[in-house]
Amino acid sequence: MEGRHAAAAAVNVRVDGATAEATLGDGELRWRRAAGAERALSLEEEVLGVEARGKEVVVRAFLASGAAKARSCVGVAGAGGTGTRRRRKDFVFEMADGEGPAAAAWAGELRARLDSFGRPKRLFVFVNPFGGKKCGTKIYETEIRPLFEAANVSITMQETQYQGHAREVASSLDLAEYDGIVCVSGDGVLVEVVNGILQRSDWEEAIKMPIGVVPAEVISLLS
């Protein structure tokens, strides 16, 4: 858990041209501007990834309604089954001292806290381009892949070409290379993947592989 990390010392930054003080602690990234307004992001629930870019630190977030205090909400419809809508947003923090090493160090601290959540780093993604409304590939390219890339997740994508294709791939896939499998499809591809895993000689271990599903008829994850 991120709670094992001690609160980090405050750093002086500029956000949207305004001076602010940023802190890490209690699972959140907080920053307070000189005018007194404070904003916060939950590291586990809202921050996808972080990147040091020269003297700047870019925090890639996926915001729900009410995120970062006065946050607007558009995006995922029905995420988590709650009807919550989400949108992608980048927050750019410029180190007040203007030094690249300071940005790299702070980004490293942020990244260490994100890594402590045990998020997957390598995913194998099945995409069914034929099922339902035939929008699986579009959903993957425009909405799913950008989220994984923002979270620094390595992706191997396989479009299914025929019935039983996912079963064949899953039956021989080197699962040691991945932290999980994602199906951008309907139930059919998921069933094929599970059946393929159950056909393996190492199925008792292979069946422990986390498998997720992105329904291929759900669109507008981002806006």
TrEMBL record:
One Gene Ontology cellular component: membrane
Gene3D superfamilies: Probable inorganic polyphosphate/atp-NAD kinase, domain 1 (3.40.50.10330)
Pfam family, one: DAGK_cat
Residue ranges annotated for the DAGKc domain, each copy included: 118-223
Gene Ontology BP terms: sphingosine biosynthetic process
GO molecular function: lipid kinase activity; phosphotransferase activity, alcohol group as acceptor
Protein name: DAGKc domain-containing protein
Name of the gene encoding the protein in the UniProt record: ga09441
